[in-house]
Design brief:
The chain has helices at about 30-45, 70-75, 95-105, 130-145, 195-205, 225-240, 250-260, 265-285, 305-310, 330-340, 340-345, 365-380, 380-385, and strands spanning about 10-20, 50-55, 60-65, 80-90, 115-120, 155-160, 165-175, 185-190, 210-215, 245-250, 290, 320, 390. It is of the alpha/beta class. It folds into 2 domains: about 10-175, VC0802-like, CATH 3.30.2130; about 185-390, Rossmann fold. The protein has a 7-stranded mixed β-sheet. The protein has a 6-stranded mixed β-sheet with strand order 12-11-8-9-10-13, with helices on both faces. A hairpin with a 4-residue loop joins strand 6 (about 155-160) and strand 7.
């Protein structure tokens, strides 16, 4: 093993972010790139105000804070990024690549085996990718005594050669994927305190939708405990977009009215109609372009195909249902991964649970919903609900 080794002081750590679908966007690509850069800064700037962002072909370079683990965790949550790599940058000269490779692999010198994966976008580099990998591999074997394993190595040294830069990495992380938040419009998420709706909001953001949340609240039937729970769920979603707002719609009198005029089996569906209508009217006034719900086909009696069809007519905006065909176990897995599951299972009464009869109707007629819709409008129920919408600080 070669013992002569001088640590390079000029080998600077940067973070390389690789984008996914953005390069399928043709002439609109620059819109997605600008939004992604803005989102990167937004999710990082509170604790990393001096962050530097450099955009290149299919990737961003983040510098100013090295491989800070907190920053890396933030970047892993930015939608539109598929890979977060801890890289070191050097000049595209063979001698510098050799020296940098020895420096980078010194961090994993206890590895059982390794291989070199080299790719070059600068075709005028004097060696091919395979020739470069073989040469660097030989240097590392001579220097550290590493064992080569091309099939299943414990460490892979990735080398990317560009015209002006070479990037070397042994550590990478999976990114959030999807599209940058804000590139697919704006929507209002109907957020309950349950498992499904936060996951629906997460998935809507993953496809580029910028969301705000609306929670329906019925004091004194529902208390501060459910509001604290909803606050915590919004904070989970803000880890992926810090700008999410939470609106609280107080609907106590509307629920009391439904109790008076509707049979128990229809109350849940009429309450869902009312919430859909109020959210739609509010969203339209605020220039949102869609509603997002956690509805899942057949999961509960109120979410049969017939009931979903009838209730969605309350909204003049498109209703996005990211979970429509998910199994409950799949939804729970996502909830656990994003950190909302433990919050969602905290016991707390919400306005819907107050209306659940023993045998709810599974096939409400649209005509029935429209009949009650006219009554709600005539009695000023919708106007009263909208007047009681407040932004939660």
């Amino acid at each position: 093993m070669n013992s002569t080794y001088t640590q390079r002081k000029d080998l600077k750590p940067v973070i390389l972010l690789k984008t996914g679908e953005l390069f399928l966007k043709g002439e609109n690509r620059f819109i997605f790139i600008e939004r992604l850069a803005s989102n990167i800064r937004k999710i990082s700037e509170r604790d990393f105000p001096e962050i530097e962002i450099e955009e290149g072909a299919g990737r961003f370079l983040i510098s100013g804070y090295g491989h800070d683990p907190v920053l890396i965790e933030r970047l892993k949550r930015v939608f539109g990024i598929v890979l977060v790599e801890e890289v070191f940058r050097c000049n595209p000269a063979l001698e510098e690549i050799e020296s940098a490779s020895i420096e980078v692999m010194n961090r994993v010198r206890g590895a059982a085996s390794f291989k070199v994966d080299c790719r070059r976008t600068w075709k005028k580099f004097p060696l091919t990718s395979m020739e470069t990998a073989a040469r660097i591999g030989e240097k590392l074997v001579n220097h550290y005594g590493f064992k080569v394993n091309l099939e299943s190595p414990s460490v892979t040294l990735k080398i990317t050669i560009e015209q002006k830069n070479v990037f070397l990495s042994v550590t990478s992380h999976r990114g959030a994927g999807g599209l940058p938040v804000g590139t697919s419009g704006r929507g209002v998420l109907l957020l309950s305190g349950g498992i499904d709706s936060p996951v629906a909001g997460y998935l809507a953001m993953k496809r580029g939708l910028e969301i705000s949340c609306m929670h329906f609240y019925s004091p004194p039937y529902t208390g501060e405990q459910v509001l604290r729970k909803v606050d915590a769920l919004v904070e989970v979603l803000r880890r992926f977009n810090p700008d999410i707002k939470l609106y609280i719609a107080q609907i106590t009198s509307a629920q009391d009215f439904i109790r008076k005029v509707a049979k128990p089996r229809k109350r849940v569906i009429l309450l869902r109609w009312l919430m859909m209508k109020v959210a739609s009217l509010f969203a339209s006034r605020k220039n949102f372009s869609a509603l997002v719900t956690g509805e899942n086909l057949g999961q509960v009696a109120s979410q049969t195909l017939e009931n979903i069809f009838s209730v969605e007519k309350a909204s003049k905006l498109p209703v996005i249902r990211p979970l429509i065909a998910f199994d409950k176990s799949e939804i729970m897995d996502i909830a656990k991964r994003i950190g909302s599951f433990e919050i969602s299972i905290i016991p707390a009464e919400d306005c819907c649970t107050l209306f659940i009869p023993r045998y709810p109707t599974t096939k409400v007629r649209l005509e029935d919903c429209l009949e009650y819709d006219a009554i709600f409008a005539e009695k000023g129920i919708y106007d009263e609900c909208l007047a009681n919408v407040t932004e939660r600080e």
